[in-house]
Amino acid sequence: MEHPRIKTEFFVPVRVVLASIVLSLAVPPPGKAAEVPYTERVISAVGASSAYATDVDGDGDIDVLSASGSKFAWFESDGGSPPGFTERVLSNTAVGARSVYATDVDGDGDVDVVAAAEGTFFQTVEGEVTWYENDGGSPPSFTERVISSPNPSCERFYWSVHAADVDGDGDMDVLAGFVHCSGGSTNWYENDGGSPPSFTERSVPSSGGSSVFATDVDGDGDTDVVTGSRGGFLDEVTWDENNGGSPPSFTDRVLSDFGLVGSVSSVFAADVDGDGDIDVLAASQDYGIRWYENDGGSPPSFTERTVPSTGVWPSSVFATDMDGDGDTDVLAAFNFGAGSIAWYENRLLECGNGLVESGEECDDGDIEPGDGCSETCMVEPGSKCTGEPSVCITGIPAVSTWGLAVMGLTILCAGTIVQIRRTAQGKVLLSLIGVLCLSSVSWGMPLYVDASCGDDAKAGTSPNCADADGPKLTLQNAIGVAAATDEIIVAQGTYNELIDFSGKAITLRSTNPTDPAVVAATIIDGSGLGGSVVTCASNEGPDTLLSGFTITGGIAEGGAECITAAAAQRSPTAPSAETPRFSLKGSA
Predict the structure, then answer these.
(1) 392-397 long-range contacts, Cβ below 8 Å, gap at least 24?
(2) At CB < 8 A and 24+ separation, what contacts does 514-517 make?
(3) CB of 34 within 8 A of CB of 518?
(4) For residue range 369-390, what is the model confidence (pLDDT) as tens digits?
(5) How far apart are alpha carbons 309 and 289 in whole angstroms?
(6) What tens digit of pLDDT does each residue of 68-82 get?
(7) Which residues pair with 103 in a beta bridge?
(8) Would you state the pLDDT for residue 526?
């Protein structure tokens, strides 16, 4: 198993000609994870339009609720690791079960369920918002109660429901997103605190009607509202800032505007990355599952990020700690075809996430042994690992009778310092007071290239331009001296040259292939050189890797002659979250 970086597979004679390519990858970069890795686990193979997770029966583990067809149901967790689930039905007579949520609506200490039925739009059967009162049994029984009122002059078709203390008076209010004769809207229903409570309908200025969620987004102590919209209206993700008051007023703020495409079917908010502020999640039937990272500002700004998923047309998204390991997992429902309900395990704080964390010696992005970094993220004997994700050198031979004790810029051989030196011709030498220990050994050493200060006469083993073995000036010179498994790390800049991998199983990458700014600033430009910018015509295989560049300026026969047809056909505007992303620049 290799560490998760861009792998552009090369198959000759297959040739796809592109004038320019920008490559990036949805994997966790060093430091704060921009792309959290997840493992999918299926709860139900029956299609659902909504899912939510909480401890419904009060037994200490997390159960799951769903809305599907004419049925509202909850899935009782058995508390296993990972847990199994038993389905229990709340109602099977809903007209278009659309959305489900759970909280203590009546303040009696147990978990009630809030639900929205869409109705039937083309038959003008209006939707309905209800809540199911928990009787506290084991397992609990539920009594259905209606919240919404009919609106015969402009029927409402409810798509989303949520509950929170919107007005800060200590009881749970209910929010609902819906569409009607004039577009999308969001209402909140003020709880009067009765037993059982009655509700007063109030509006939120957002145009979102497909999904609604409420929490303190900006950290100012009151309840804000997050909404999503879809279905031919303005498709966007917004949050409505609570300005206080009794009842409160709201200021509408846009997080992401998909225009007339995007179909935002669900929104949720939670601290996904564990940094102490509230992030926003959204499920888009056109763009998959996204989360928006809160920068903690006042008001906050947000950065859009992706959760990889194999499901099609996500209809609902939710976040909680599903497996009890202390981080935030993601739960999603999909309603395309047979549909499914799945959850995505957050692997931000564990071995195999590509980050070298406390107690780890390495982390190459997997938990497979035999590749230099073990299944417990320890460096395996005879290996050396560096970086995040860790790049490991394996099969380091013993040095005569001295034995190899430490691998690095210097090596300790039986108490004697043995120094590594790499020549400009690419040989790795170990010397002991003039005695050669090993010669011409290729261990996958890193080489460096820098367009601003490099020198092709230097060995290229140091990224520092002032060093005697500092970076090379050109990519092709570095490729020429590179040995199998070597990694060439390229500083930001423009490299006006044509390159040929010459059949070598090496990695050529920018300093950070997962950072769009670095990718955009690391350019291989073939302008004026009259050929393909990148050539791989010498039986290169899957171990030849190109990662994190903007490639432009190719003419005639090509910008790049080494990309598979499958890769080239990916959309530049809506890339898969599980594969490298491609953006086209210039023309062939």
Answers:
(1) 392/3, 392/362, 392/364, 393/443, 393/444, 393/445, 393/485, 394/370, 396/443, 397/438, 397/441
(2) 514/24, 514/25, 514/26, 514/27, 514/28, 514/29, 514/34, 514/35, 514/548, 515/24, 515/29, 516/24
(3) no
(4) 888 999 889 999 888 888 888 8
(5) 7
(6) 889 999 999 989 888
(7) 112
(8) 86
